[in-house]
């Protein structure tokens, strides 16, 4: 909650007057009164702060302290001329991150954290393609192992997904694993790649976990392309572009689970919760003023009627509260 206020205290002999004027109550500004774009921008800003702190303390950080099971997935590298595959590279990497999360044996780094570090290192556009630079990225995002992938069109028109896993501490690179499928079934390639990675990592899935990995979140390539544009925009720090692209993906396929989750991310609290928070803050502010150094005096206060009304999302409520204390 952001509260703008000014308190003017005037002393005239024994007569003390406390004036609380223009209390601008932006109820739940960061969580409920803001728009989806502002909420996403706030999340990106928080991730950027963490990334800057990681870079500032890079020399003092011991890579050996990174838990062994932490794992991060970088956006798939795509040739610059493959403009259609560029958003798919981001979208497929995000789906792969979700599928790898089906196993509790891996502790995955969130996409926002990875994107913030890539922005700081100016690696969003070209991606991380050199295994020699990957360990530094892994250390900064707190991942013991880092997946570097690529997406490209094969000679037969199939989409080929390739990936290799870099150990951040040892600098070793596991063998490249790859999978391919026709463009309109690119989801099949992502699922095959996920299962191959589990195998190479020595992780045995339960039947239930495997079924969840194999479940398609969407079967519409257009929805995945729009979703990938959202992930790509977010990696660039573009909250408005990301929000619009996720909305587009959900419009193309209302059943797209990942898109629905992104559209619903950081939901605003209910009107009742907003109202309760607003009242609590005003009561707290009033108590602070009443308990000021001037004590043992009758207090006349007028409570704003507007506080009884629930705040709609995006609203700004200005309260003028005057408290007069007579000796």
Write a concise synopsis of the structure shown.
With 327 residues, the protein is an alpha/beta fold. It is built from 10 helices and 10 strands.
- The CATH architecture of the largest domain would be 3-Layer(aba) Sandwich
What's the story with the biggest beta sheet?
6 strands, mixed
The DSSP helix count reads: 10
- The general outline is globular
Find the structural class using helix and strand composition.
Answer: alpha/beta
**In the CATH hierarchy, what is the superfamily of the largest domain?**
TolB, N-terminal domain
The CATH topology of the largest domain turns out to be: Rossmann fold
Supply Rg.
26 Å
The secondary-structure element order is: EEHEEHEHHEEEHHHHHHEE
- Reading off the top of the CATH hierarchy, the class of the largest domain is best stated as Alpha Beta
Mean of residue pLDDT values: 77
How many separate domains?
2
Give the termini separation. 34 Å
How would you characterize this protein structure?
By secondary structure, the protein is an alpha/beta fold. It folds into two domains: 2-32 and 269-325, no CATH class; 65-263, 3-Layer(aba) Sandwich (Rossmann fold). It contains ten helices and ten strands. The strands form two sheets. Strands 3, 4, 5, 6, 7 and 8 form a six-stranded mixed β-sheet that branches. A four-stranded antiparallel β-sheet has the order 1-2-10-9, with helices on one face. A hairpin with a 2-residue loop joins strand 1 (2-12) and strand 2 (15-26). The protein is globular. Residues 1-33 and 266-327 have low confidence and may be disordered.
């Amino acid at each position: 909650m952001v509260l703008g206020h000014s308190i003017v205290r005037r002393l005239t002999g024994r007569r003390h007057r406390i004036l609380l004027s223009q209390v601008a109550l932006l109820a739940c500004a960061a969580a409920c009164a803001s728009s989806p774009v502002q909420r996403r921008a706030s999340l990106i800003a928080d991730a950027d702060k963490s990334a800057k702190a990681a870079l500032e303390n890079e020399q003092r950080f011991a890579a050996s302290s990174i838990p062994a099971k932490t794992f991060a997935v970088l956006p798939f590298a795509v040739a610059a001329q493959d403009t259609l595959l560029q958003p798919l590279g981001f979208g497929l990497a995000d789906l792969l991150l979700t599928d790898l999360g089906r196993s509790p044996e891996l502790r995955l780094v969130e996409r926002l954290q990875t994107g913030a570090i890539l922005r700081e290192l100016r690696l969003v556009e070209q991606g991380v393609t050199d295994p020699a630079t990957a360990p530094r990225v892994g250390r900064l995002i707190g991942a013991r192992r880092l997946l570097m992938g690529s997406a490209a069109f094969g000679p037969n028109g199939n989409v080929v997904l390739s990936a290799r896993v870099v150990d951040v501490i040892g600098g070793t690179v596991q063998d490249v694993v790859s999978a391919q499928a026709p463009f309109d079934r690119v989801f099949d390639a992502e699922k095959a790649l996920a299962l191959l990675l589990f195998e190479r990592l020595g992780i045995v899935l339960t039947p239930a976990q495997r079924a969840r990995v194999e479940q398609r979140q969407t079967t519409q390539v257009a929805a995945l392309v729009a979703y990938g544009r959202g992930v790509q925009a977010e990696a660039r720090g573009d909250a408005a572009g990301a929000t619009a692209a996720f909305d587009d993906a959900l419009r193309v396929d209302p059943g797209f689970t990942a898109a629905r989750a992104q559209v619903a991310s950081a939901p605003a609290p209910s009107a009742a919760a907003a109202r309760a928070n607003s009242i609590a803050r005003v009561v707290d502010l009033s108590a602070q003023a009443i308990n000021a150094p001037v004590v043992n005096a009758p207090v006349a206060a007028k409570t704003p009627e507007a506080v009884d009304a629930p705040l709609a999302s995006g609203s700004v409520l200005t309260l003028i509260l005057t408290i007069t204390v007579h000796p």
